[in-house]
Specification:
alpha/beta, 661 residues, 7-stranded mixed β-sheet
């Protein structure tokens, strides 16, 4: 497997891959107020498949601005605009950190409040020019910050970190590279101070460390990262002994336990990666001119935990998929990097979805290692069928039972076969004779067969129901199989009547949680076996009594039961016969071999759900009305699906696991 496509833990987050998007100035914000544009919502959402997005540099205060049409993070309007971006990324299952960038002397009075001079550690004019709204202009000599002012600038970073969290960012990155204010303090060529912030390397590093401590105080160390770029030389930055400077700095970073150290190298003559990674000791992000092959090699050789891509990601919004397929790449167009509008921003094409369909398939029986993501031809709907673009799919116990080969006799498969039996998504195409559905409609359904873990799925229109507007895709994906199984078990197979007693084994699971609610609605007495930690939940759902099966034998409490729903199998099923009333019956989803136990006088059977779009529509309506509760244990990304299936095998929390595509 391509190591770049494997999951990685950064701070508190398990990220879907090791292909990170670099911070890149794009200059599409409103120049007058630093409010991010609506185009940015699309731009970042398009690239949400990155393991982590690090945003373009964002100024923490009005005095930190250094480029036209760049965004800030200190006003309510700026926070609100960024919140739309983070919501869009999170809706795609992505993670996003905000990069805080105070440009210091690399600014111009025309961009600053009341035409103020840029601030810097020392009054040293940088060589070069700044692009202003009036055209190119020479940099000016900045104003050196007074010692007493430095704490105020540090506090600006702290407040910006707080606002970033308010905007929904998963963390923040300090931009301490590219010749901006933090590196101006760090480098000997731009810092000629004689106070505690200048002179020695420890003094010159003090500003960066104080800023990081302030950011950590707001976000926690595991949600703060830092970017450095030794010897980059950008923006007229020079240091007389960069190896000494950066080895000292990174040695001081290690005890902070930051989320990561991001090191981008371009012109360095020294192997900083080899020197700095051991000093830092934590997650190491490597950037600067990497391609697929070099990034893969960096990960394989243990030189980095993730690789950061800049213009390659800019031009390829689906870069992780292209790397995984070794597909051709779009070429970036530098002429459009900073031009206002969508061109060169949100119009780079993704791979043609008409050519391929990604699917999670079982290739053999045996365990977690037999499941792989494959690219398949896009299916086409036939008569009476609908093509659904999958947004989310529910994980079922059947997935690991099929994978491990435990039910190969009951469910004969032609391998490889795509796992998954329920989904929620959007109609992409309709076949002949289909009425009531149109492209763009949101739908949920139970396939009645395998195949839901794919980008696009063909399903009979009669198996679908519309998703009510108030229900999101994840919630919708948790409904079909669990709710239909519970309803059909109770009322079609089990013939449960008002006043009868039902005993539900495995009541805290997805099927069980619906069964408890349906049985309560029908006027039955509801007994449930479950772990004690789930007792309060089950009582809220309608259980009359919850039996802690880990500490009590259920047959000591459950008596004269009319219907047993067995969602567990094994010894639990065997012991359940003794609690039945004279008219009692048992139906199981877990034990196809129940037929061998159906001796004279015993009633019951093994149950298999059938798809029913009309019933599903009614159930979805009850969920939307608040009459039914959907219990969800966890939501995972497609890349985490294999691990989620394994957790379902080992046992997990209450309710359903859902894969978000």
């Amino acid at each position: 497997m391509n190591q770049l496509s494997t999951a990685v833990k950064i701070g508190p987050y398990q990220l879907r891959n090791r292909i990170f998007m670099a911070p890149m100035t794009r200059s599409r914000a409103n120049d007058a107020d630093g409010v991010q544009s609506e185009l940015a919502v699309t731009y970042y959402r398009q690239r949400a498949s990155a393991g982590l997005i690090i945003t373009e540099g964002t100024f923490p205060s009005a005095m930190g601005k250094g480029y036209v049409a760049t965004p800030g993070i200190y006003s309510d309007a700026q926070v609100a605009a960024w919140k739309r971006v983070t919501d869009a990324v999170h809706a795609e299952g992505g993670r996003i950190f905000l990069q805080l960038m105070h440009t210091g002397r690399i600014s111009h009075p025309s961009m600053l409040p009341q035409g103020a001079l840029p601030v810097a550690p020392s009054a040293i004019k940088p060589a070069g020019q700044s692009y202003t709204m009036s055209g190119m202009a020479d940099f000016v000599t900045p104003r050196a910050l007074e010692t007493a002012e430095v704490a105020g600038v540090v506090d600006e970073y702290r407040l910006a970190t707080r606002r970033a969290l308010e905007a929904g960012f998963d963390g923040v990155e300090l931009h301490a590279a590219s010749g901006y204010l933090p590196e101006q303090f760090l480098a000997s060529g731009t810092n000629h101070r004689t106070d505690q912030y200048g002179g020695s390397v420890p003094n010159r590093a003090r500003f960066i460390l104080e800023v990081l401590q302030a950011m950590v105080a707001e976000a926690g160390a595991d949600r703060v990262g830092i970017k450095i770029s030794p010897e980059m030389g950008f923006n007229d930055i020079v240091d007389e002994n960069p190896v000494e400077t950066y080895t000292y700095l990174v040695g001081q970073l290690a005890p902070l336990k930051l989320a990561y150290l991001h090191v981008a190298l371009f012109k360095a003559s020294f192997d900083y990666h080899a020197a700095l990674r051991p000093l830092f000791g934590g997650a190491y992000l490597l950037g600067g001119g990497q391609d697929r092959e070099s990034g893969e090699q960096r990960i394989a050789d243990g030189q980095a935990d993730a690789v950061v891509y800049g213009s390659t990601f800019l031009a390829n919004p689906d870069l992780p998929r292209r790397f995984e397929l070794n597909a051709p790449l779009n070429a970036p167009n530098p002429a459009l990097f900073y031009v206002p509008g969508p061109a060169g921003y949100i119009d780079y094409p993704a791979l043609d979805d008409e050519r391929a369909n990604r699917a999670l398939r079982i290739h053999a029986y045996g365990g977690a290692e037999v499941v792989h993501w494959d690219e398949l031809p896009l299916p086409l709907p036939g008569a009476g069928e609908v093509l659904v673009r999958v947004a989310a799919a529910g994980v079922n116990g059947l997935d690991w039972k099929l994978r491990d080969g435990l039910v190969r006799d009951a469910f004969p498969l032609t391998l490889p076969a795509t796992l998954g039996i329920e989904l929620a998504g959007e109609v992409a195409a309709v076949g002949a004779g289909v009425e009531g559905y149109a492209v763009g409609d949101r739908v949920l359904g139970a396939l009645g067969a395998l195949g839901a873990y794919a980008g696009h799925v063909v399903i009979g229109a009669d198996k679908l129901a519309r998703i009510p507007a108030t229900i999101d895709d994840v919630t919708a994906a948790a409904i079909p199989v669990a709710s239909l199984t519970a309803w059909q078990l109770l009322f079609e197979a089990g013939q449960l009547g008002r006043g009868e007693t039902v005993l539900i084994h495995g009541g805290a699971g997805a099927i069980g949680s619906f069964a408890v609610q349906f049985a309560k609605q029908a006027g039955a007495r509801v007994l449930v076996t479950a772990r004690s930690r789930n007792a309060d939940l089950l009582r809220r759902l309608g259980a009359n009594e919850v039996i802690d099966y880990q500490n009590v034998r259920f047959e000591e409490i459950a008596k004269n039961v009319d219907l047993v729903l067995d969602l567990v199998g094994g010894e639990t099923l065997t012991r359940s016969w003794q609690v039945l009333s004279p008219k009692g019956r048992i139906f199981t989803t877990a034990a196809p071999d129940i037929a061998a136990q159906l001796t004279e006088g015993r009633r019951g059977g093994w149950f298999r759900m059938r798809s029913d779009g009309a019933r599903l529509a009614d159930i979805a309506g009850q969920v939307a009305a608040g009459d039914l509760t959907v219990v969800i244990d966890e939501v995972v990304t497609a890349e985490q699906a294999g691990d989620a299936i394994e957790r379902n095998k080992q046992g997990h929390g209450a309710g359903k696991t859902v894969i978000r595509f």
